[in-house]
Amino acid sequence: MAEKIDVQGREISIISREYQDYISLTDIAKYRNSDAPADIVKNWLRSRSTIEFLGLWENLNNPGFKLVEFDQFKNEAGAAEADILNMALFGMTAGEWRDENPENKGNIRDYACVSQLVCLSNLENLNALFINESLPQKERLLKLNKIAIQQMKLLTDDRRVKKLGGKE
To answer: Which residues make beta-bridge pairs with 6?
Structure first.
């Protein structure tokens, strides 16, 4: 049976199992979006930093934790979001770029110019906002691509940005 605690005037469930207490993420998420708390939890779990935190927690608290398997999972986490950003800006996924550029080490972003990196940073922030607004992936990609085109036009025409990249 779940106990309830009051957190800043909000009732949150705590479940105890084998002398361990677990708080309800769903109860917390209900205060952000009472109609669809699962969407909030999904967004939390989509974040690479959340996944890294969970891996650290498991490593410290779970003697049977399989670190090698987790590392593979962690490396894949957020890959779809990174590919959305890559598609919006570069027109290809990281995997497609690696296939087309086997002689290059690193990834597509390692070969980006200053303007592309500035645009990419902006796209990352906008993508997080769009995810928070529950925009479907396809719609986010279309919006991000339009924004990337606009920003790249502005950034490549700006002589000050060219100076930053040493292209003046």
So the answer is: 11
Cα angle value 121/53/68 (rounded, 5°): 100
73 band by pLDDT with thresholds 50, 70 and 90: confident
The model's pTM is 0.54
Q: What is the three-state SS of the chain?
A: CCEEEEECCEEEEEEEECCEEEECHHHHHHCCCCCCHHHHHHHHHHCHHHHHHHHHHHHHHCCCCCHHHHHHHHHHCCHHHHHHHHHHHHCCCHHHHHHHCCCCCCCHHHHCCHHHHHHHHHHHHHHHHHHHCCCCHHHHHHHHHHHHHHHHHHHHHCHHHHHHCCCC
